[in-house]
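ok so I'm stuck.
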Amino acid sequence: MQFPFNLSADRQFDVIGFGTNAVDYLIVVPEYPPFNSKIQFSDCVQAAGGEAATTMVGLQRLGLKTAYVGRFGTDEEGVFGLRSLTEEGVDVRFTEQIAGARTQIAFIVIDEQGGERTVIWNRDKLLAYNEKDAPAHAVALGKVLHFTPHDTAACLQMAQAAKENGTIVSIDIDNVFEGVNELLPFVDILISSAEFPEKFFGIKDKKESLHEIKLRFGCKIVGMTLGEAGSLLFCENEFIETKGFAVPDGCKDTTGAGDSFRVGLLYGLLKGETLETAAKMANAVAALKCRKLGARTALPKERELLNFLK
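replied:
not stuck anymore, here's the structure
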């Protein structure tokens, strides 16, 4: 099945990313500790993360042109996070450093046995965008706008501008946010966590919940990531179920696996692949990412991804 979109030609960027960045402190433990206990960790690293920023880095590594729209603090983490994008070649002309703000950080506890993680995070309110300061003019430069809806009113402005300029709108959503009902009618590609549709509609059946999202909001592609089981997409009244890939040498860390799935899916879209092939690419990028600690550490280059798929 072909993607049901016509991509705009002659855009400066393949994808514009809008949303969260973060600096992660990853702590590996033999097993997740019970409450009011002590445990010795086996590894601890600092790494750049955040959903939208990570997705832009992943696409950039696969040879696409990306720009990131977001805010950092002026603290050490902000310098680290911003540098992590520029070193990867992501365009940061639309980023800001907010004086007095603290860059978003996360403490991530990883179970050494299977790589599953628990995320404890905080985002400074000074980093938030509203509908008046969202840089909506940026979306006209990209073929695709990909965002996380933490600043929902600002996302709505960006998505409306995307529609006016013929830019495809993609959303990464895990939780129900205020204003989400107003935002989703402007979304073309909605990929959520497995839990989101049930949280939103109270429908446990996965296929039924995806059908309801498409029926209610008109998103052309709706889907969910299913962890190691793979993914489920719904497009043009057809479900596409794609099995996951085993992580080479075992899963070390699932942090950013969902972001990595979006990387592969958008890469397939922009390369003119079928939806089925793009779903395989998405699952492959997610599996390769899980080889090492950190959301971006093991994101593959294009040749590595294609060889893995072979």
